[in-house]
Each structure stands twice: as C-alpha cells, then as structure tokens.
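Quick one: sequence plus magnesium ion SMILES, need structure tokens.
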Amino acid sequence: MKTCLVVDDSKVIRKVARHILETLEFDVREAADGREALDACLADAPDVILLDWNMPVMSGMDFLRALKEAGLPQRPKVVFCTTENGMAYIRAAIEAGADEYVMKPFDRETLESKLQIVGVA
Ligand SMILES: [Mg+2]
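Reply:
Sure thing.
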C-alpha cells in the first residue's frame, strides 16, 4: 500500500483529502504544518506528500527547502495544493522541489491524475 502524507493547516481539507486518498487505496497520514510534516518524513518517509502552501509554523515553501536539506535516501514525491494559478508562483514551487501542483478545491479525478503524473497512483 502506498503512503501519502497530507499536510494542511485546515482540518476540513485534510479530512476531504484523506477520504479521496483512501478510496484510491492510500495509507494516509496527516500533518498540520511543515514542521510536523518534516518530523513525519524523518521518522518514516511517505511515497507522496500533498502539500498546502500557506500554513503557520512552517510554510510549504520552507518545508520543501528543509526536505531538500534533510537529504532523505528516497525523497517523497510532492504535489502542492494552491488556490493561486499564477505561473510565476507555480514555477517557484517547482523550483523549490515540488513535482506537480493541484488547484484547490480538487476532486477525486483531478487528484488521481496528478498522482499518476508523479508516478504513485
Ligand atoms: Mg493553509
């Protein structure tokens, strides 16, 4: 079973994402900010991370930088979730280490296609 870490400060979004991912047969874990996510990755790296951008404590961008510095033997794939669709903004995220992005709110089909693009679904 593939593992997905859902990182979002919104409990509602985590719940929605968890539900979708479980129907796609992922083992789901959750983190409420980048710091929690980093700790979770260091303890046991997931196959893929669904990453919110705006979060307290540690943002999605800072998390990506920290993940890169952590130098995990196998880096998880990262799909970042955004409400903004500016290309400069998306490019910055990809440069920081994200593999793909998905616009919020997302549905099952959209998320599944993004997970296929990064090679985990
Ligand atoms: Mg947020």
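The first strand starts at residue 2 and ends at 7. Residues 11-23 form the longest helix (13 residues).
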